[in-house]
Predict the structure.
Amino acid sequence: MSRDLGEKLAEGPAAPQSVVVWLAHKVEELSRSIERMKLAEYMALFDRPWRLMWLNFLAGVARGLGIAVGFSILGALVLYALSRSFVSHLPVLGRYVAELVMIVQGHLGLR
């Protein structure tokens, strides 16, 4: 781990040379980090706003399509599980449905 700049300056007469080496190392490290982030390509997008909007539009379409397909599959699985559950528990659920129908008929008869 590299030492702090204050520690480098406090080393004594050889300090200026070691500080320059330390700073050169840090600049090189920063340069590698910027290259890994592809910052130049990212900044080039801001020079062409229509390309940036087009890429964002395509990303939004892909995201929306993925959500629609995922929701459809998940919904189908939930409906399948509920239909299987409903058939196996029909007598228990039938009582609640009958009560609900009686309540609705009672409200319709009052009007």
Notes: The chain has a mean pLDDT of 81. The two ends are 82 Å apart (CA to CA). The CA atoms of residues 15 and 35 lie 30 Å apart.
